[in-house]
């Protein structure tokens, strides 16, 4: 099916800066040690045929959310690649994680239905409950979310990670349990001027506040980008899924894949294993033994990666597609083989979203990209 695209001025999705709601995002850096200690397994297919694409082992960005009355604050990964809100309800000895206690909430309502999701690294389970959750100062009452009492499927990455739970920012079609996704539920309350959110993944080491990472609710911040947004329509309202027009290195086509999803819960770029291997070879990256990732010379003269989305080229230079740690450089791309009918596909994770300020427009069912400042 032919996919059309639209180009619009940034003002089409923006609102006055004073009306924007900002959620600060913190960064848990991806290091070589984290990569080497992660247990890897494949993509999971659920009983309903949905694809679970994230295991959060290399997740980097997390921010605040609260559940209950009075509010119990936790840190969550705001993840456009999933669509459930879950928070832990059991505190383990020496665990750094905050937990939710429904006995301390006056607005809690029991549900009791089993929640069970299979991530790439294993299962996470618990049960559904209802309560008020608050995202960026906006209350959503009687929301059905999951209390999780088994996080073993997330492996050691969760035990040392700085996030407590997950807030899926995808569409309701991919929720486990069939309830509205968190942002869909917030949009239905009518509290936002525009049902749009945008991620700015800045330089957290910068002393300048405007360079700090944040999630914007209700529009976009003009201070975070230059030029205009290019909008690409969704091809499916589950993930934030769009058509991929191409991927080239030195002008050579490197993909036959036609689908991309924009995923804030994935740190790296990810695509079919054979295509990733060919791209790694083309840029001079070398495989890390026993891991799906690659390293590359930090000072290499390497070509750009060029993604075509909505008829426009988006280039990533070497400095964009490496993650430097202790003098080593990780080639920020990994193989992931998603089966049909949802795949094969490419995942445009945080590496792409740092270079291109990204807005997710639920009203118009599109994703917009502009060059980040």
What global shape is seen?
Answer: globular
Q: Structural class of the helix and strand makeup?
A: mainly beta
User: Cα-atom Rg, whole angstroms?
Assistant: 20 Å
* Helical content (DSSP H or I, runs of 4+): under 10%
Please mark out the parts with pLDDT under 50 across 5 or more consecutive residues, or reply none.
Answer: 1-18, 39-45
Number of helical stretches of at least 4 residues: 5
Content of β-strand: 35-45%
State the distance separating the first and last CA atoms: 35 Å
Give a quick account of the main beta sheet: strands, pairing sense, barrel closure.
12 strands, mixed
List keywords for this structure.
373 residues, mainly beta, twelve-stranded mixed β-sheet, six-stranded mixed β-barrel, 5 helices, globular
TL;DR of this structure?
This protein is mostly beta strands.
Structural account:
With 373 residues, the protein is mainly beta. Helices cover 10% and strands 41% of the residues. It contains five helices and 30 strands. Strands 1, 2, 13, 14, 15, 16, 19, 20, 27, 28, 29 and 30 form a twelve-stranded mixed sheet that branches. Strands 6-7-12-8-11-10 form a six-stranded mixed barrel. Strand 6 and strand 7 form a beta hairpin. The longest helix has 11 residues, at 273-283. Mean pLDDT is 86; it is low at 1-18 and 39-45.
């Amino acid at each position: 099916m032919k996919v059309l695209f639209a180009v619009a001025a940034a003002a089409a999705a923006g609102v006055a800066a004073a009306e924007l709601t900002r959620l600060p995002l913190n960064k848990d850096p991806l290091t070589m040690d984290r990569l080497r200690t992660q247990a890897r397994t494949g993509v999971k297919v659920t009983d309903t045929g949905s694809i679970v694409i994230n295991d959060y082992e290399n997740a980097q960005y997390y921010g605040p959310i609260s559940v209950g009355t009075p509010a119990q604050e936790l840190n969550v990964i705001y993840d456009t690649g999933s669509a459930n809100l879950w928070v832990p309800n059991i505190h383990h000895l020496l665990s750094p994680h905050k937990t939710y206690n429904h006995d301390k909430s006056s607005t809690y309502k029991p549900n009791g239905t089993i929640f069970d999701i299979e991530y790439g690294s294993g299962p996470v389970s618990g049960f559904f409950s209802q309560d008020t959750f608050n995202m960026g100062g906006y209350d959503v009452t009687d929301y059905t979310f999951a209390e999780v009492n088994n996080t073993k499927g997330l492996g050691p990455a969760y035990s040392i990670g700085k996030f407590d739970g997950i807030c899926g920012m995808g569409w309701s079609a991919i929720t486990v349990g069939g309830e509205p996704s968190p942002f869909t539920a917030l949009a239905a309350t009518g509290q936002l001027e525009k049902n749009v959110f945008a991620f700015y993944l800045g330089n957290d080491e910068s002393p300048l506040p405007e360079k700090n990472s944040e999630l914007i609710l209700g529009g976009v911040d003009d201070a975070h980008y230059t030029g205009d947004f290019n909008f690409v329509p969704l091809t499916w309202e589950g993930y934030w899924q769009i058509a991929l027009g191409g991927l080239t290195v030195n002008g050579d086509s490197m993909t036959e894949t036609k689908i991309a999803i924009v995923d804030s819960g994935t740190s790296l770029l990810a695509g079919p294993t054979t295509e990733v291997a060919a791209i790694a070879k083309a840029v001079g990256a070398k495989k890390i033994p026993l891991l799906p990732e690659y390293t590359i010379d930090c000072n290499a003269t390497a070509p750009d990666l060029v993604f075509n989305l909505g008829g426009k080229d988006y280039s990533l230079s070497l400095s964009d597609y490496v993650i430097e740690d202790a003098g080593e450089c990780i080639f920020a791309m990994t193989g992931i083989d998603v089966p049909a009918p949802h795949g094969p596909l490419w995942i445009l994770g945080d590496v792409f979203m740092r270079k291109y300020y990204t807005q997710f427009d639920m009203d118009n069912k599109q994703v917009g990209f502009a060059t980040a400042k």
